[in-house]
């Protein structure tokens, strides 16, 4: 994917965390997925389609998920509940939604967020797509943003 | 989601397995996710957007993934490699791609397939979406198809 496409997602993540969670995030070194951290145990995943196809993955520790959900939903969560996982999905949706409006030439639409759980899970992209991985530090712990975008292929079955 | 929306995905899965993998699948009891099997260790996930938003999840054992990849790529795989995972993503893409052409009124486009690995992983949908889960038996072992679709919401940030 073109490197400049990552910037709207980075900006969007900062804005969503600042405005929705009153939380300042600190960006680390941008890299390709192979050099980045593994996924944390909770990942929000949302698809993008339009003049490119892709995926946004927001991966975080249980601590970050609980703190983010507590702030977003004004309720204290001390364990991972359906509400906490919904909040992770909604944050992923907001990050993708804000970014797509800054990538007008790609005419992106977003799909439904899914939330992947499991200590050792990994969210992989097809081998021909190299996602860009951006680590962030929050006051609650680390999280990673991954974005992979590919040119539109001929639809399967067409 | 409307129950009739699941049928194109079921038909598509049968057609893809028959034509691409020379493999007859046997459908089990359609259910809601809560009553269905847990995810198998490898899941292909692809987003849908258009006049509805959603996700297709194709979840299978390592054995089914290796056998499917071996047939699709005409190479014998005895372990999980990047090629095997790519094949799972491509199968998921084909199932979603064929189904969307039968759901013209939804004007769906598909995103990029991702492949989730991890023995205990789970692919969750937002609480307000109840995915339909369809178990299948193949000669290589079981797999499940999950489809969740929701009406389009106002985009985040709009």
Radius of gyration of chain A using CA atoms only: 15 Å
Q: In angstroms, what separates the terminal alpha carbons of chain A?
A: 24 Å
Q: By helix and strand content of chain A, what is the structural category?
A: alpha+beta
Give the proportion of residues in helices of chain A: 25-40%
Low-confidence stretches of chain A: none
Count of runs of 4 or more consecutive helical residues of chain A: 3
Largest interface: A-B, 50 and 50 residues
Order of helices and strands of chain A: HEEEEHHEEEEE
Description:
The structure is a homodimer of 158-residue chains. In chain A, a hairpin with a 2-residue loop joins β8 and β9 (141-151). The longest helix of chain A is centred in the middle third of the chain and has 19 residues, at 82-100. Chain A is globular, with a radius of gyration of 15 Å. In chain A, strands 1, 2, 3, 4, 5, 6, 8 and 9 form an eight-stranded antiparallel β-sheet that branches. Chain A has 158 residues and is of the alpha+beta class. In chain A, 30% of the residues lie in helices and 30% in strands. In chain A, α2 crosses α3. At the A-B interface, β3, β4, α3, β5 and β6 of A face β3, β4, α3, β5 and β6 of B. β6 of chain A pairs antiparallel with β7 of chain B, so a sheet runs across the interface.
